[in-house]
């Protein structure tokens, strides 16, 4: 299998080779467990209790026999938390996107997609067979020009955007997206993977952030795997739309449903987030103080009042060598490179999490200040 060796060598030469790191002996500064809910004692207790009742797996897809009171209760919790009439669980965020987007738009339809949307959205758009037009990141003027020119040639139209962009931490401008969807008769699909538990005063997501109410043409997708600290995903919209997805979204129909204990744990985590809204504000304050500290050290960090703090290095080689040097010190901070971000936009994706103690943060700052072979003066500034 010579091709395999050649391919791997090529990946390595471009500094794009990926490998996993066992995290147990490292201090993890790049997880998405922003609110520190994944091992909250009440979450663990709820999971163990449900596991004792239900066992491990759900046993089948939701349309066969894998739909339980635990699934239904979580769907109801999510639709009340997101303030949207109905909700459907999926096995993961990736599955939610590749199931829902092609169910909403197909041949003869148009999809408008932000350039920095998550890879699962890109794959979903490819699967859909719809005409896909990508607009430059957050450039809604460009999006509108594309709509003006193209909307009339297609049957249905779907505008797709992350709410919080996963590698940059910036936020879509909901009022403009709603206006475009309204004026050009489009559906609006928002990926709330990093917005759920984070945006708005109580972490309800992008509608709370902009003090707006959900509208019928909007489809909200979110994951349970980030601030909720669990696994799985959901799509919230009107009852009719959810009925339609139950019948049409292939990754829902043809995939085993979430384990009941995972659903129970996720529901408990949302209840804690609702009961303790200080978590949302505290993680944002923490992100701001980390951002200030890193800027003082001399790093170029993006900050948009979300817990995602990319340390920009621009060079794939620098990103990987810095990540490896930190690893040697016991810090887990993975290099994010192409194709996760565009070429030349490599970075370390640091995240703020309520998991960190004062000592953890001191350890991070000291580790970053004392990197042996990469003088900070060599880091480019925008
Ligand atoms: C914006 C966005 N959408 C979707 C996903 C996929 O979610 P999951 O990890 O649950 O498959 C992720 C995370 O990886 C994400 O960041």
Summed up:
Helices cover 42% and strands 15% of the residues.
SSE order in H/E notation?
HEHHEHEHEHEHEHEEHHHHEHEEEH
Order of strands, main sheet, comes to: 2-8-7-6-5-3-4
Q: Low-confidence parts lasting 5 or more residues at pLDDT below 50?
A: none
Largest sheet: 7 strands, mixed
What can you tell me about this protein's structure?
The protein is α/β, with parallel strands linked by helices. The chain has two domains: 16-34 and 277-378, Aspartate Aminotransferase, domain 1; 41-274, Aspartate Aminotransferase, domain 2, CATH 3.40.640.10. It has 14 helices and twelve strands. It has a seven-stranded mixed β-sheet, sandwiched between helices. It has a three-stranded antiparallel β-sheet with strand order 9-12-11. Helix 5 links the parallel strand 3 and strand 4. The protein binds pyridoxal-5'-phosphate.
Layout of helices and strands:
Blueprint: H1 2-13, E1 27-28, H2 41-54, H3 69-82, E2 86-90, H4 93-104, E3 110-114, H5 119-128, E4 131-135, H6 140-150, E5 157-162, H7 174-183, E6 187-191, H8 206-209, E7 218-223, E8 233-237, H9 239-248, H10 250-253, H11 260-275, H12 278-297, E9 308-314, H13 316-328, E10 331-332, E11 335-336, E12 346-351, H14 358-369
Parallel strand pairs: 1-10, 3-4, 3-5, 5-6, 6-7
Antiparallel strand pairs: 2-8, 7-8, 9-12, 11-12
This protein binds pyridoxal-5'-phosphate.
